[in-house]
Amino acid sequence: MAGYSGAGFMALLRLGALLSVSLVLAGCVTTGQPVPAPAPPPAPAAAGADGGRLSPQDAARNFVTVVERVEPVAERFCRQQAGPGQNCDLQIVVDRRRNLPPNAFQTIDEQGRPVVGFTLALIADARNEDEIAFVLGHEASHHILGHIGRKQQGAEAGAVLGTMLGQATGADAATMKQWQSFGASIGARRYSKEYELEADALGARIAWYAGYDPVRGAGFFSRLPDPGDQFLGSHPPNAQRLQQVGAVVAGLERQAAY
């Protein structure tokens, strides 16, 4: 993908200073509150002249606006659906390294707090607020649904199976490690596609309740290479993901009509 000029990147880098103020103020949501009615749609955001990339300034503004709207909704969903003792105090961070490709991720920090991260390239590549909202909802959903823990359990079970296979074949120490690594990789990937579809579905709900259009937000799939339906692939086909989001939104619209 084409990069920004040095000046453009500096504008995005200044986003970090804005976020350090805006995101620290994102408060905890009272436990037990019901998921609110859908928020009113945001005012139309600035768009590129050709429907393509935004200016760095508009991209940064879109990101801050989306985080302020979506994070509280994601935390409400978390407190309603997460398991006992699960931390729902989401921390949104930006990885400001310029050489990283467009990407978003979910992890847990050393204090057990859930972290959703965005690279600068993803913020710069988003065409509208809906795309950022859907990605944020999707990544938050991985935490709400406990996917990291479930993947770790799968990896551990796969490593045990790899050990058993290695022992059955009389493998030496080096080969045993290879069997364990192979088993862990298979175990972690076994349900990866299902996890992505689950996060798409819940992420669409989060974005919708925050006042965004998840179908429009899922438009970024059209700019991603289609992984196809690979055996033990980490992501489902793009068409399947779009169908999932569309079905969720159609259901939400039917509910809102009653």
Uncertain parts: 1-36, 43-50, 229-233
Note the beta-strand portion.
5-15%
Based on CA atoms alone, the radius of gyration comes out at 20 Å
- How many β strands by DSSP? 3
> How large is the count of helical segments?
10
Distance between the termini: 44 Å
Mean pLDDT across the residues is 74
What class would the helix/strand composition place it in? mainly alpha
The biggest sheet amounts to: 3 strands, mixed
Q: Which percent bin holds the helix content?
A: 55-70%
Order of helices and strands: HHHEEEHHHHHHH
Shape: globular
Write the layout of secondary structure elements.
Blueprint: H1 6-13, H2 15-22, H3 56-81, E1 91-95, E2 104-108, E3 114-119, H4 120-125, H5 129-144, H6 147-168, H7 173-189, H8 192-209, H9 214-217, H10 238-257
Parallel strand pairs: 1-3
Antiparallel strand pairs: 2-3
What would you note in describing this structure?
- This protein is mainly alpha-helical.
- Helices cover 56% and strands 6% of the residues.
- The protein is built from ten helices and three strands, in the order H-H-H-E-E-E-H-H-H-H-H-H-H.
- A three-stranded mixed sheet has the order 1-3-2.
- Strand 2 and strand 3 form a beta hairpin.
- Helix 3 runs parallel beside helix 5 and helix 6 runs antiparallel to helix 7.
- The N and C termini lie far apart (44 Å).
- The N terminus is likely disordered.
